[in-house]
Structure formats: structure tokens, C-alpha cells
């Protein structure tokens, strides 16, 4: 013991503390990273889903050229004329067939012919009473068919004229484009020639 201090006891306590520190388990880097955060920190650190849409679907627009619109319109009109004309022709054939049958029966069997004519008139009157349009006049049917034929011919003539004019416009447009392309090429060659003459690599002439 020196100056009231027990050095032996002091060394013993220091040794025990050192041994205690060496025996204490150390926390590795992996253990620190594996340690879970508290609930608040976990929620704060968790990436929130983005509100920005990742996939946007745009509507599809069908842009048609003037040619395609004209052609489609022509097809619709032609189909309409053909359909109406075909119906008129079929109706005319049916009416003529019925009238011929009545005339035939009148000659072979007048009573039966009269009965058939009476039944046909009754059928026509009943249809008109229901508000249906009855087409049983041969002359009017032929007139309507002729009118439809004329309309179709005028439409075809007009379409042919429009097609011809469109062809001319397309040709003029193509010729103008070719002229502009050739002008660009000539201008480019002239610039190159001018540059070479300026540098003395080419003689003007």
C-alpha cells in the first residue's frame, strides 16, 4: 500500500473490467443492419407508390386522305343507288308477273281471273290502310328506274371528272417537288464549286 492506495487491488479491478469487455458479445455490422426500425421509421422509409400513371393509353385517330374519303363516299353512293334500283327492278318484275297471270286467267278462266284480281285489290287496300307504300303502278316504277339510272350515270361522270382533276393536282404536286429537289442539288453543287474556287482548288470556267 502506497499513500493509502492498494495498487494490487486496483490492478485486479482493471483486469476484471478488461476481461468483462472482452467477454461481452460484439454487435456486427450485419446485426446492426438486420435490426428492425420502429414502426414510424419503417413507414417513413418505405417508398410510397407513385401517383404518376406509368401507362397512358391514347385514343386512336384515323386520319384519312382526301382520296380515301372521296372513294369511300363514292362506294356508299354507288351501293345506295344499286340497292334502290335493284329493289325497284324486282318490284316491277313482280307486278308485271302478277298482271300477266291475271290476264292469262281472264282468257282461260274469267271467273278465276276476276277472283284473283279482287284478292289483289283487297291486299293492296289493306296494305295502304296500314300505312304501307304500295308500288303497283308499272309506269311509275319504270319512270323511277329510269331516274335512278340517270342519277347513277351523272354521279359516275362527276366522280370520273373529280378523279381526273385529282390526278392532275397530284401530278403538278409531284412535278413541283421534283423541281425543288433538283434546285437544291444544283444550289449545293454551286456552293461547293464556289468554295473550291475561293480556295484555289478549282479554276472558274
From TrEMBL:
Bias type Basic residues, positions: 190-205
Region named Disordered: 1-54, 145-205
GO molecular function, one term: RNA binding
InterPro entries: Rrp14/SURF6_C, SURF6
Keyword check for Amino-acid biosynthesis: no
GO cellular component, one term: nucleolus
Keyword Nucleus recorded: yes
Coiled-coil intervals, chain numbering: 85-115
Compartment(s) where it occurs, according to its Swiss-Prot or TrEMBL record: Nucleus
Taxonomic superkingdom: Eukaryota
Regions of compositional bias (Basic and acidic residues) in chain numbering: 162-189
Pfam families named among the record's database cross-references: SURF6
Family, as annotated: Belongs to the SURF6 family.
Protein name as it appears in the record: Ribosomal RNA-processing protein 14/surfeit locus protein 6 C-terminal domain-containing protein
Amino acid at each position: 500500500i502506497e499513500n493509502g492506495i492498494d495498487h494490487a487491488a486496483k490492478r485486479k479491478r482493471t483486469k476484471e473490467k478488461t476481461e468483462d469487455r472482452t467477454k461481452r458479445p460484439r454487435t456486427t455490422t450485419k446485426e446492426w443492419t438486420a435490426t428492425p426500425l420502429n414502426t414510424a421509421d419503417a413507414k417513413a422509409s418505405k417508398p410510397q407508390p407513385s401517383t404518376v400513371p406509368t401507362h397512358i393509353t391514347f385514343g386512336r385517330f384515323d386520319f384519312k386522305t382526301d382520296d380515301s374519303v372521296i372513294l369511300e363516299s363514292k362506294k356508299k353512293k354507288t351501293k345506295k343507288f344499286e340497292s334502290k334500283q335493284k329493289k325497284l327492278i324486282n318490284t316491277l318484275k313482280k307486278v308485271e308477273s302478277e298482271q300477266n297471270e291475271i290476264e292469262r286467267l281472264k282468257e282461260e278462266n274469267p271467273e278465276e281471273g276476276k277472283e284473283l284480281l279482287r284478292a289483289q285489290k283487297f291486299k293492296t287496300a289493306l296494305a295502304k290502310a296500314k300505312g304501307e307504300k304500295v308500288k303497283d303502278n308499272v309506269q311509275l316504277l319504270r319512270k323511277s328506274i329510269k331516274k335512278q339510272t340517270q342519277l347513277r350515270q351523272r354521279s359516275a361522270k362527276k366522280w370520273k371528272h373529280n378523279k381526273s382533276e385529282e390526278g392532275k393536282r397530284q401530278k403538278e404536286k409531284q412535278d413541283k417537288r421534283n423541281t425543288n429537289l433538283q434546285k437544291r442539288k444544283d444550289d449545293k453543287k454551286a456552293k461547293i464549286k464556289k468554295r473550291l474556287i475561293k480556295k484555289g482548288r478549282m479554276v472558274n470556267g
